[in-house]
Structures are given as C-alpha cells and as structure tokens.
C-alpha cells in the first residue's frame, strides 16, 4: 500500500509538474468517465459528474495517505488503498485495463485513477477536514513535540508496531516506515507503548521523521507492481531483509508477524 512518502511523491508530481508530467494546478475538469462504480464512494455518479465538471484544480494537498485535490468549490479526496495510482495521460492514450475513474482535463488530457485490486476510493466533499477528522496528527506536525508524542504513547497499552500503523494515532505511517523507524530507533516492535521512556519516545519520533523524509527524497519505495517511481527500496535497513545481516551488528534480520503484519527487526539491536 502506498504510504506517506509514496502519496507525497504523487502529490508533488502533479503539483510541481515535470517534462513528461505537467502540473495539474489550473487545469479544468471537462468530463468524467466512471469505469468502476464502487470506486466512487460519494456522491452518486450523476451528482458527482454534475458537481465536478467545470471546476478548476487548485492546490493539491495530502492528509495521511489521502490525496486532496482542492477545486473551486469542493475537494476531490482520493485514497489509493492497496494498489491505486494516478496517471496523467495525453488525449490519444488508450484507456488502460485497470483504470477505474478518468477525469477529462483541458485539451482532452486525462487524469486516470488506476487500481488493479479495486480497493481505492474517491470522494467529492465540501469539507475534507470533517471527513478526515478521525486521523491522528501528521508525523511532521510541529505541534507534535517529543513530549506530546511521549504523552500520546503513555495513553495506550499496546505493542508499538500496531500502534504506529493505527491511522488514528499517527497519520500516514504504514508497514515499511514503521519497520524502518523502529530499526533506526533500536526499539523492538513488541515493546509496549507505555513502556517507552521520554528519551525513547524522542528517539522514535526523530527516527520516523528521518525515514519518512528519506522516503520522500527518494520518491518512495517501489517494492512490487503496486507503485513504481521511487528507489527507497534500495536503502531498506530492516524491511524485507529477512536473513540478511544487520548493517550495524551483522546479526541476521528476523521476520515475525505482529498484528497480522509481517515485521522485520534486528534481534540484537532491537532487544525486547
């Protein structure tokens, strides 16, 4: 599943533009092709088309793992889920097999939501803040100080790895960056959150911010057919390195299942 760095990389691609992918800011939505009805969570297809056609794309934002296309009057919210991705396409491009929703832009250009597994969802809302109120703070939020982070950890008696994956606790962190952050902080994934000291919480927050920043800098991780575009996978320290030597102590990286998620750690550097 695309996590914060992958979603942020997609956001930057469409916000800043490049030679082969122009910025979408200022583009008008001229039409809609809904190719998989369940992709659209709300409103109903006819109302969606009526409301969105004619609107102009303004700023493109992100909240957790959600992409936010701010339009003239409303916000288009997209969650990529397991296999979603967005593609800019010239008018003559054939519609790909797994395209689920296509927005026709100026001069016939297209913004296509491609989703092989069909789990991704799209909303058109007036107030994205109300829709996303269930999310926890952003990892980079300046208001999230080490002291505040430690207090939040103390409010739970949970294993730290599943808690980091809880989007209501911290928005945007997924399996890859939780493993990498815990490795960098030298914290065992089964550690109880309320057992972390203030120093441990400070170290973990700094580690999470570091690996997320590295992920963004490298345009995310491309580990399978779901997301292509980054190279952070070549710099993993723990994730998917089962049996390989730890880069710090040479102990083989181990894999266990925590909260139904494969979890990678060094049993020497990350003692329970």
Summarize the main sheet. Answer: 5 strands, mixed
**Backbone shape:** elongated
Question: What Rg, in angstroms, do the CA atoms define?
Answer: 20 Å
The spatial strand order of the largest sheet comes to: 2-9-5-4-3
Tell me what the CATH architecture of the largest domain is. Alpha-Beta Barrel
Write the layout of secondary structure elements.
Blueprint: H1 4-16, E1 31-34, E2 40-42, H2 45-52, E3 60-63, E4 66-70, E5 75-79, E6 84-89, E7 99-104, E8 110-115, E9 121-125, H3 128-131, H4 146-154, H5 160-165, H6 175-185, H7 198-217, E10 254-258, E11 261-265
General description of the model:
The protein is α+β, with helices and mostly antiparallel strands. It folds into two domains: 4-131, MutM-like, N-terminal (N-terminal domain of MutM-like DNA repair proteins); 146-265, Orthogonal Bundle (Helicase, Ruva Protein, domain 3), CATH 1.10.8. 26% of the residues lie in helices and 20% in strands. The strands form three sheets. The chain has a five-stranded mixed β-sheet with strand order 2-9-5-4-3, with helices on one face. The protein has a four-stranded antiparallel β-sheet with strand order 1-7-8-6, covered by helices on one side. Strand 3 and strand 4 (66-70) form a beta hairpin. Helix 4 (146-154) crosses helix 7 (198-217).
């Amino acid at each position: 599943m695309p996590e914060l760095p992958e979603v942020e990389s997609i956001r930057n691609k469409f916000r800043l533009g490049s030679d082969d992918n122009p910025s979408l800011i200022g583009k008008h939505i001229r039409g809609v092709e809904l190719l998989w009805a369940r992709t659209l969570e709300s409103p109903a297809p006819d109302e969606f088309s009526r409301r969105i056609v004619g609107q102009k794309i303004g700023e493109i934002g992100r909240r957790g793992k959600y992409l936010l296309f701010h339009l003239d009057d409303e916000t288009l919210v997209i969650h990529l889920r397991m296999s979603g991705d967005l593609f800019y396409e010239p008018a003559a491009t054939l519609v790909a097999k797994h395209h689920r929703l296509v927005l026709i832009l100026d001069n016939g250009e297209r913004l296509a939501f491609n989703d092989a597994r069909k789990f991704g969802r799209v909303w058109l809302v007036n107030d994205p803040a109300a829709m996303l109120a269930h999310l926890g703070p952003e990892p980079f939020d300046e208001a999230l100080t080490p002291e505040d982070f430690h207090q939040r950890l103390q409010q739970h008696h949970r294993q730290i790895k599943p808690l980091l994956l809880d989007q209501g606790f911290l928005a945007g962190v997924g399996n890859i960056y939780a493993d990498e952050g815990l490795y960098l902080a030298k914290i065992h994934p089964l550690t109880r959150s309320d057992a972390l000291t203030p120093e441990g919480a400070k170290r973990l927050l700094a580690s999470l911010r570091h690996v997320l920043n590295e992920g963004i800098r490298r345009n995310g991780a491309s580990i399978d057919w779901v997301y292509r575009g980054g190279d952070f996978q070549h710099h993993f320290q723990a994730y998917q390195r089962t049996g390989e030597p730890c880069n710090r102590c040479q102990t083989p990286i181990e894999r266990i299942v925590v909260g139904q998620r494969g979890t990678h750690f060094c049993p020497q550097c990350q003692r329970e």
